[in-house]
Design goal:
The protein has 137 residues and is mostly helical. It has one domain. The protein has 6 helices and no strands. The model has no long low-confidence stretch (mean pLDDT 88).
């Protein structure tokens, strides 16, 4: 933590708004990644080999070609919203890398969202905010 991040108060309203967007993005990314994994299992695991299901493999290829870029866009939006939260909280670079990692491993974004929520709440209690001055007045 740098000197600037400890002396300059956080904007609690902006942080909570940013976290709300990040929370939605985490849930959407988690679901999108699970859908992508299911498509890949169907494409390569169930219907990918020679044998009984080869005629439907082309269908899963097409579904994969459509869903993969959609998931990529969802992940990019997730990273942008994670970056926004990271900037507003003024965390270290390790925290940003962790936020990005949460969106890469299936199901981890759900746990990462809960962990991030606890970290945001703890930091808002511990660190000064602009709204603290208004509450005292």
């Amino acid at each position: 933590m740098t000197v600037a991040s400890t002396t300059r108060p956080l904007d609690e309203v902006a942080v909570r708004t940013s976290f709300a967007r990040f929370r939605i993005a985490s849930i959407v990314e988690g679901i999108a990644l699970l859908v992508l994994v299911a498509i890949m299992v169907m494409r390569y695991g169930v219907y990918g080999g020679e044998g009984l299901f080869t005629s439907t493999s082309h269908t899963w290829d097409q579904i994969s070609e459509i869903w993969s870029p959609i998931h990529g866009l969802i992940y990019m939006i997730y990273v942008v919203l994670a970056f926004d939260l990271w900037l507003r909280m003024r965390w270290g670079i390790g925290q940003m890398l962790l936020l990005m990692f949460f969106g890469v491993v299936p199901v981890l974004s759900f746990f990462g969202e809960r962990w991030t929520h606890q970290k945001v709440e703890a930091d808002l209690k511990r660190r000064p905010t602009l709204q603290d001055e208004a509450r005292l007045a």
